[in-house]
Q: What sequence folds into this?
């Protein structure tokens, strides 16, 4: 995948370079998954990001640019724990329902708008991404089958 991200010269060679290619590619997958929603009359004002990687400024920037839409993260670092606590609080009748519990405890970061120049480039790259999978589908399925075959032949750790 061609990307507009570049690793700084002093960055660990493989890790950051790989991330600079993998993150836009993964976000293209997310963009493709959002296409059915975008084909409806629903028009979200932003995409809500949750999870560890989604809290990283680089990930937020790439997601906004590739999706061509503002993104907004949750301000809570331990989102799963907060969700569990809110469900418990609703179960203990401390809140009448989950929306009320969320309104009281969930915070959001300021939305990050896409950079128009990068979003335009990613729009053009995305068109190539969309056409890629149909071209390699049969090979990908064959590779998956071979991987399963190999896993079945792998020595058992207990042997």
A:
């Amino acid at each position: 995948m061609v990307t507009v991200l570049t690793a700084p010269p002093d960055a660990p060679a493989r890790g950051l370079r790989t991330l600079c290619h993998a993150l836009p590619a993964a976000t293209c997958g997310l963009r493709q998954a959002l296409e059915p929603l975008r084909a409806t009359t629903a028009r979200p004002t932003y995409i809500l990001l949750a999870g560890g990687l989604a809290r990283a400024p680089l990930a937020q920037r790439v997601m906004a640019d590739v999706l061509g839409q503002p993104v907004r993260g949750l301000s809570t670092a331990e989102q799963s724990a907060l969700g569990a606590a809110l469900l418990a609080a609703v179960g203990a009748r401390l809140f009448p329902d989950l929306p009320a519990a969320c309104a009281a405890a969930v915070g959001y970061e300021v939305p990050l708008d896409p950079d128009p120049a990068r979003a335009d480039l990613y729009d053009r790259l995305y068109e190539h991404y969309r056409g890629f999978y149909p071209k390699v589908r049969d090979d990908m399925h064959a590779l998956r089958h071979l991987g399963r075959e190999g896993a079945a032949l792998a020595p058992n750790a207990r042997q």
